[in-house]
Amino acid sequence: MSNNPRSNTSKKLKHHRNQDSDDVDGNPEVWVTLDKSFKQVQSVLDRNRALIQQVNENHQSKIPDNMVRNVALIQELNGNISKVVSLYSDMSSNFSSAFHQQHSNGHTGDD
């Protein structure tokens, strides 16, 4: 079994996609949008991992210039965290809207 978070997320998404597909199958754009959003989130998280590694290296070096650089790196991290929150919020809203739109159109998966 893989310990790769991306692999686990992908498996969970596929499981939920199969499990709940009757609810939103009429709108495949929902899955395309979710997939794109998850990839954007993963890209930001990968960047954050690299930033954290750099911050740690700079801190361990105890070189004053590196410590000063950490200020900008940490500011970028904070901005990226806000970006991830925003992406997840948008995903939730988009999925919820699509789900409710599907049900309001009379598609309940019993077709």
From TrEMBL:
Residue ranges constituting the Protein EARLY FLOWERING domain according to the UniProt record: 27-105
UniProt-listed InterPro entries: EARLY_FLOWERING_4, EARLY_FLOWERING_4_dom
Keyword Nucleus set for record: yes
Region described as Disordered: spans on this chain: 1-28
Source species, domain of life: Eukaryota
Alphabetical keyword list: Biological rhythms, Nucleus
Main subcellular localisation: nucleus
Subcellular location as annotated: Nucleus
UniProt record similarity statement: Belongs to the EARLY FLOWERING 4 family.
The protein's name: Protein EARLY FLOWERING 4 domain-containing protein
